[in-house]
Amino acid sequence: MSILVSIVLPFYNAASTLSVAVSSILAQTMSEWELLLVDDGSSDGSSEQAKAFAEKDARIRLISLPHGGIVSALNAGCDLAQGAFIARMDADDYCVPTRLVKQVAYLQSHPEVGVVGCQVAFGGDRVQHAGYAAHVDWMNELLTPDEHFQNRFVDAPVAHPSVMWRKGMAEGYREGAFPEDFELWLRWMDEGVLFAKLPEVLMTWNDLPDRLSRQEDRYAPDAFYRIKCQYLNKVLPDDRPIWLWGAGRVSRRRFSGLDRLEGYVDVDPKKFGQRLEGVPVQNYRELPENAFVLSGVANRGVRNKIQAYLQSTGRVSVRDYYLCA
Q: Which of 88, 86, 95, 90 is nearest to 26 (CA)?
C-alpha cells in the first residue's frame, strides 16, 4: 500500500477522547493513510490506548516522547511522515468519513493551493462560549485563497486540526510565546502559500474546558496581536502613512508592536485632537487620502462597518487597508 496521507495527531493525557478521534480516522473512506500518534509524555492511560490501536492496525504508529509540549510533538510527527500530504488532527476532535478523500482530491485538482481546510462544526456551548462560536462562524465563511489572505490578520483563518498540506512545502512549527498554528499560517502566507477551505463541514472542533488555548499564555489575545504586529511590519508600505482605526486603550496596547504609526482615527469626538502614545487622534472622516489603514476594533459588527466605510471611499483590501481585529 502506498501512503498518500500522513495524519499527525499529538496527544497528552487524552484518555477520555483519544479513542473517538482515532475511530474517526479508521472510518475514513480512503485507506491510503498512516496515523502518527505522537504521545507527549502522557501519564493517564492514553499511551496504552494508542499502543492498542497500533497493534491492531499497521497503518497506525505510536511515537513516544518525553513531555515537551505541542510544538515538539507536532514537528516530530511531521518529520516522520511518509505521505505526500500531511493532515492534522487533535485528540479531542473527530472528522467525518469523507474528510481525507475530499481534501486530497482538492489538492490534487488545485496544484496552486498549498493548504486546504474544511468548515467545522462548533463542539461546545454556544451560549457560554459565544465568542469562540462566533469565531468558528467567521472562519467558516472564508473559502477562497483571497478571502484567507485578506483576513489573515483578523484571526487564525483555518481550524488547526482541519487542515491538510503538501509535505515538504515549507519549514514547520516554531517554538515561542505565540500560538504555533497562527504563526505558521502567517509565515506560510508571507512566503506565498495559498490557503483554501472546502465548503463542507467535515470535522467537529470541540471546545473543551482543558484545551490548550484556555490554559497557556501563548494563546492569550495579546500573544495573537504580538505575532500579528511582527508580520504586519513586514508587509506595510514604506511610502504611505500608517493609521490605526481605534484609539481605545486596548487597541493601542495590542498594536504597540507596530514599527511606525502616523496616528489614530476614531468615531468618538471626545478623542479628536488628542495625542495618544505620541501621535494624533483624528475624526475617521478626515483620513488622509494616501493613508494605509489598519482596522483595530475587535467587535465584529464594527469591523464590518469599518470595512464598508473604507470601501465606500474607494479603498481596496490589502492595497489600502487590512482588517486586523
A: 95
Amino acid occupying residue 153: F
Q: Does position 211 have pLDDT exceeding 70, yes or no?
A: no
d(CA 280, CA 274): 6
158 CB-side CA count, 13 A = 33
pLDDT at 212: 59
176: enclosing H helix or E strand? none
Residue 108 CB contacts under 8 Å (≥ 6 apart), including other chains: none
Tell me if residue 47 falls in helix, strand or coil: helix
Residue 127: what pLDDT? 86
Is the domain defined by 236-323 classed in CATH 3.40.50.2300?
A: no
Say what percent of the chain tops pLDDT 70. Answer: 97
- Write out the DSSP string of 61-96: EEEEE-S--HHHHHHHHHHH--SSEEEE--TT-EE-
Other CB atoms within a 10 A radius of the CB of residue 210 amount to: 10
What does DSSP assign to residue 318? T
Locus of grid cell 490605526: 244
pLDDT band at 168 (very low <50, low <70, confident <90, very high): confident
- SS3 of residue 322 by DSSP: strand
- Only one residue has cell 506560510, namely 188
Which CATH superfamily hosts domain 5-216?
Spore Coat Polysaccharide Biosynthesis Protein SpsA; Chain A (3.90.550.10)
For CATH 3.90.550.10, the residue range(s) in the chain are: 5-216
In the chain, what are the helix, strand and coil shares in percent, each to the nearest 5? 35, 25, 40
Is the pLDDT at 79 greater than 90, yes or no?
yes
Q: According to CATH, where is 3.40.50.20 located in the chain?
A: 236-323
Closest CA to 177 of 136, 239, 235, 225: 225
